[in-house]
Amino acid sequence: GLTAAKAISGSTVILTDRDQVNIDLIRENIRLNSVEKQAFAEQHVWGDVKNIRDLQRRVGNIDCVLGSDLVYSISVVNDLFRSIKAYFEVCNTFVFVLCSSFRHPGKYLGKMVHAQVSFSHKAHLRVS
Question: How far is CA 24 from the centre of its chain?
Fold first, then answer.
């Protein structure tokens, strides 16, 4: 997120985490990287669609959602995709990029494919 804030001219980047301690660390990193005008941090718990609606009312549409190493447990996949679905529906998001490494890819892949196809937006899952 900080790289996007620095690299993409005119961008506004919202960095999220569920844990307030991490939000405080993200805010400090934003300050240390001098991207306060391009980036801010918001608390978000996956699956909390109301939070996404509130965010959209405050900042407008969100064009792209980037995720890195988000899937740390099989238990988070449904809530993650519930949030992604809300971004598509509420914020007119048109790109979702997830980069992650899986310790047990067979265990996660089926769950992610099932979660992905559970909403109507055209989505592609590419595993490398």
Answer: 18
What's the alpha-carbon Rg for the chain, to the nearest Å? 15
pTM of this structure = 0.73
Spatial distance between the Cα atoms of 70 and 124, rounded to a whole number of angstroms = 17
In angstroms, the Cα distances linking 88 to 38, 49, 63, 70 are 22, 11, 9, 18
- Give the pLDDT of residue 61: 80
Q: Residue 112, class by beta-carbon neighbours within 10 Å (0-12 exposed, 13-18 middle, 19+ buried)?
A: buried
Chain segment 73-82, per-residue pLDDT in tens: 777 778 888 8
How far is 61 from 92, CA to CA, in rounded Å? 6
| Category of 111 on φ-ψ map: left (φ > 0), alpha (ψ -120 to 50) or beta | alpha
Q: Which residues pair with 17 in a beta bridge?
A: 43
**Distance (Å, rounded) from C-alpha 99 to C-alpha 67?**
6
Task: Write the pLDDT tens digit of every residue in 44-86.
Answer: 888 899 998 998 888 888 888 888 777 777 777 788 888 888 8
